[in-house]
Design goal:
By secondary structure, the protein is of the alpha+beta class. The protein contains six helices and 23 strands. This is Multidrug resistance efflux pump.
């Protein structure tokens, strides 16, 4: 019994040891799996990050094809110095007598007009009424001299010589009166100044002996008080002489002042006379100016009334049975109005390509294309079957100039067009230059790299790796044979069915690893 229990215990211990060993193996295995997963993830992400850092490229396949050096020309036919038929009044069109493309002679009828008063006729009539009202109002305003009214009504227009003579006489009188009045005022100012000066001098001269006289009188009183008879007699003589001198000086001052006042009165009277003359001359000049202005203004109004009446009569005559006729010989290139529409003043109702004037076509091309042609070259129709007589069509290059929109890269070709079948405004397509050439290998121009006769292309080569395919830009030398605006013909040792790199998201060099652009 004890042995059996012992065996049972040993078996249990053995199972525990085996379980522990299995747990250790599982742990190691799980750690290994996790490690491998982490390594694979890191490898994948590093490969992905590296791929996104690579230049992204676009490729094309090498193919056979043509190098086209023909220059396509297209544009609108334009008439040189086209004649625009216009009318000076607004009228309703009752009929159109010609069609576009028709040849007309001078004075051929182009349009028929309704017999109604035009807007210009009505406007001119309103203008005439306003002019006549203004003329009558100014003529009898009360500000116009009667002789001027009479002359204007009788149509007597004074000459410029008469105007000049009348104005000169009035101006001369005014100028003379103004000068005289200024001189009179100047005389008054001078006399007034002299009177003031004389009075000041007289007062000063009279005051000078007054002081000495007062001193002598004081001395005389003192001598009399002391009874000094000898001094009294001398001082009395001195007082008498000084009194006499003072009296004489006062009289002289009074005489000078009276004389100045007399002169001032005469000068004031002269000033009054000159001022009255100046006022009269001023009124006369104003009257002459008003008279001349009224006569000139009224005469001008009368002339305008006569002109308006003549224009109104002409418009009235043209309002019945009126037509619009061709002013020159030529081809009708456009009809701008139809029956029922109204004409507008100065708006072209038709355009005529005048006989003997050129028709032209302009087209903008690249500078490289323009270098292949020269003035005098002939362009041909792209689709001659659209013309009944294509042999009579000529397009001659007459000028080459810079395109103002892009002078560095573009040129404008101007052709002289000769054809009985084209009209201004018509769109046509032409071609000129060399015929297309066939080549076994052509690629886009941007696929060819290098220069100085050392051209090459970058071929996309593929390499396998455990983590996927890798693409390398491999340099292959080529020779360029020909080119046009889009493609270049090449020859070289290129792999069969290879892909040529044309563009890249950033600069690449031969041997660089790249990635394909996503489609």
């Amino acid at each position: 019994m004890n042995n059996e229990n012992q065996l049972v215990v040993e078996d249990k211990d053995t199972d525990k040891d085996k379980g522990k060993k299995r747990d250790k193996k599982d742990i190691v295995k799980n750690i290994a799996i996790v490690f491998l997963c982490i390594m694979l993830a890191l490898t994948f992400f590093s490969n992905t990050i590296m791929n996104y850092s690579l230049a992204q490229v676009a490729t094309v396949s090498v193919d056979s094809g043509e190098i086209v050096k023909e220059i396509p020309i297209s544009g609108e036919i334009v008439a040189e110095d086209p004649y625009e038929v216009t009318v000076k009044e607004s009228r309703k069109i009752s009929g159109v007598a010609v069609k576009e493309g028709a040849h007309v002679k001078k004075d051929d009828i182009l349009f028929y007009l309704d017999d109604i008063e035009s807007e210009e006729f009505l406007a001119e009539k309103e203008k005439l009424d306003e002019l006549e009202l203004k003329y009558d109002t100014e003529l009898f305003s009360g500000n116009v001299p009667d002789d001027v009214i009479t002359n204007v009504r009788k149509g007597k227009k004074s000459s410029h010589d008469k105007y000049q003579s009348e104005l000169k006489a009035a101006t001369d009188r005014y100028d003379a009166a103004l000068d005289a009045d200024r001189a009179a005022q100047a005389q008054i100012d001078a006399i007034t100044q002299k009177a003031t000066t004389d009075k000041a001098d007289s007062d000063y001269n009279a005051a000078t002996p007054g002081y000495t006289l007062a001193q002598a009188q004081a001395d005389l009183a003192d001598a009399q008080a002391r009874g000094d008879e000898d001094r009294i007699e001398d001082l009395q003589k001195k007082v008498d002489e000084l009194t006499k001198d003072q009296s004489q000086l006062n009289n002289l001052g009074t005489q000078l002042d009276a004389d100045n006042q007399k002169k001032l009165a005469a000068a004031t009277a002269e000033k009054a006379r000159t001022q009255a003359e100046l006022e009269a001359a001023t009124k006369e000049k104003e009257k002459v100016l008003a008279s001349l202005g009224s006569e000139i203004g009224l005469t001008d109004l009368k002339d305008k009334i006569a002109e308006s009446k003549a224009k109104l009569a002409k418009l009235e005559a043209e309002s019945t049975g009126a037509t619009i006729k061709a002013p020159v010989d030529g081809i009708i290139s456009s009809i701008n109005k139809v029956a029922g529409e109204k004409t507008n003043a100065e708006e072209p109702v038709a355009v005529i390509q005048v006989d003997g004037k050129d028709m032209t076509l302009e087209c903008s091309v690249k500078t490289e294309q323009a270098k292949r042609v020269k003035v005098g070259n002939v362009a041909t129709l792209t689709n001659p079957y659209s013309f009944e007589k294509p042999d009579s069509f000529k397009a001659i290059l007459k000028s080459i100039r810079n395109d103002k929109k892009d002078p560095a890269n573009m040129k404008v070709l101007t052709f002289k067009i000769e054809s009985p079948e084209v009209t201004p405004g018509q769109e046509i397509s032409l071609k000129m230059g060399e015929k297309p050439k066939h080549y076994d290998m052509i690629v886009p121009n941007n696929a060819v790299k290098g220069g100085d006769n050392k051209s090459y292309v970058l071929v996309l080569t593929e390499k396998n790796s455990p983590l996927g395919n890798r693409y390398i830009a491999t340099k292959v030398d080529v020779n360029t044979l020909d080119s046009d605006s889009k493609n270049t013909a090449i020859e070289g040792n290129l792999p069969e069915y290879c892909s040529i790199i044309t563009t890249a998201s950033k600069a690449i060099d031969p041997g660089d690893q790249v990635r394909l652009a996503e489609k």
